[in-house]
Write a structure and sequence with these properties.
The termini are far apart. Helix content is about 40%, strand content about 20%. With about 210 residues, it is α/β, with parallel strands linked by helices. The chain has a seven-stranded mixed sheet, with helices on both faces. Strands 1-2 form a two-stranded antiparallel ribbon. The protein has one domain: 3-Layer(aba) Sandwich (Rossmann fold), CATH 3.40.50.300.
Amino acid sequence: MNDAAIAAKIVDKWKRSPWAFIRDACLTVDEADAGNIKPFPDKPYLAYVCEVWRKHKMLAIPKSRRMLMTWLMLALHLHMALFVPRSAIFIQSKKADDSDYLIGDNRMLFIYNNLPGWLHRYGLAQAKHKQYQVTFSNGSYVMGIAQGAAQLRQYTATAVLCDEMAFWEQAAATWRALRPILQGGGRATLLSSANPGFFRVIVDGTLRGHH
């Protein structure tokens, strides 16, 4: 088997398995270890979260600092952007600048820019970053937006990642805006450190009265 055939086989494996792509190809920055660049650790809980995310359109995930959940979710949404052409992906935070940080050179684009060099020779979609948006040559895009119901009203979203939602003043209104996306077949992932409020209501499954 020649090099091109081997590469094509690996890319096909990564396309079918987000966790294989993340484990084998993606790097992170460990700020707790002097900013060293490291592969994603091959931890069973990370593989499990990837599988659950792949199967379910709506997830709410409590996190702690060392779980790598934000890195993992950004890598999963990057996988979608690269391997599902024309995906419309939104990263939503309390402020738009926070979202832009997550899609930029320190997080999602860091992962993209540090993918194996050979991958770019085998059809990897090219990325361009401008403020609040990364566009890909396969028609996908990732947009960073602020909290709030109005932010998504004009868009049809393939996936939305809400980061640190427990600290949003407009968490409930944002949730109501996400429901049509879910009903239309899109995906929503809610992620946060622990904090009392609406996010805890979602995690505890006590949403009655918040519709």
